UniProtKB/TrEMBL annotation, chain A:
InterPro entries: TAT_signal
Protein name per UniProt: Uncharacterized protein
TrEMBL record, chain B:
Protein name, as recorded: DUF4439 domain-containing protein
Residues spanning the signal sequence: none
Matching InterPro entries: DUF4439, Ferritin-like, Ferritin-like_SF
Taxonomic superkingdom: Bacteria
Amino acid sequence: MRLMSPTPPHPDRRAFLLLGAGAAAALVTGCGLNNPFDTSTTPAAEAVRNLAPDVAAAVTAVGRLRTNQANLDAARAAHPALTKRLSGLTDLYRAHLEALVAAVPDGVDTTPATAPRPVPAGRAAALALVGKDAAAVQVGLVDLAVQARSGPFARLLGSMSAGLAQQVVLLQRTPVAR
Amino acid sequence: MTPLEALQATLAAEHAAVYLTGVLGAQASQSRQPVLYAALTSAYRAHRRNRDHLTVAITTAGGVPVAAAVAYELPPAMSNASELNDAALQLERRIAETYGQLVENTAGAERRWALVALTESATRYLEFRGTPEMFPGSAS
């Protein structure tokens, strides 16, 4: 007798994302926008707002992850001693961005709109801020997953959120010297 | 898979998890392995709580909650802390995947609850000496 029923096969998440990206790219070819939820009324802004809902969610998630990634890179540069401690989160952001980037239409610019935030002088404070950023994105991914129209996409966002939660726990486990 | 079918599959998995964490907890020593014992006790309570939530959700949805099996296949080895950790970790990985499936096949409040359960299971990996994963709960 098995412990649990086996999970049935699922659609490949990349196939789903590429499908969404293809549909969305047709809408926004040539657009260069930072924020898909921009309230301006230019045709380009409206086109991005009208993206398939899950593609807009992917754009939002990529933007948040890239902002966190930039802040994390800044923290590592200011405190090289944190590099090893932050390696798991660094790899996680990279893997998550790779999974989502196929869903972002070519014309949409998801680079962080602002420069990385100033890094606290103390290592502990810098680490805490990186953890706080990760926790905020983790909660945001849950909200995006709840709103997702596609089940497989919701699952992808949920698994990303769970992976981030693991990293947040690890960051909080051992205090660092100030 | 319908939402009700996904809820039933998750309940079946939680029945097994309650059984197994109970067995694993009975093998751990509260005095000699206090951290492991506490983690298993916490996991047992979480799975029991989730089982009860799922039972109510299925009943509310008009279904008849799937019953627990009489017995479940036990891990091949449970004689020391390492083996108990391995068994608990494997259990949590399977449960996380089951919650991933529930996320995929539900919407609204049910999906949000499944997302929380998925996250809790993923963070329990770490209690059982598991290493973090990029996409816990994704389809294998």
